[in-house]
Amino acid sequence: TNEKKPRESILRVEFANAINHINKDLSEKNRLKFLHWDLHKHYK
Description:
mainly alpha
């Protein structure tokens, strides 16, 4: 969904960057998985 003032989209990008930073030193089986789920779109 499009936001009038982008908040969640900015947070989503920064959160994904943080997950990637954490995962870079972890083995494949210990990595965090990031799943974007738009609740507003889901409940329409």
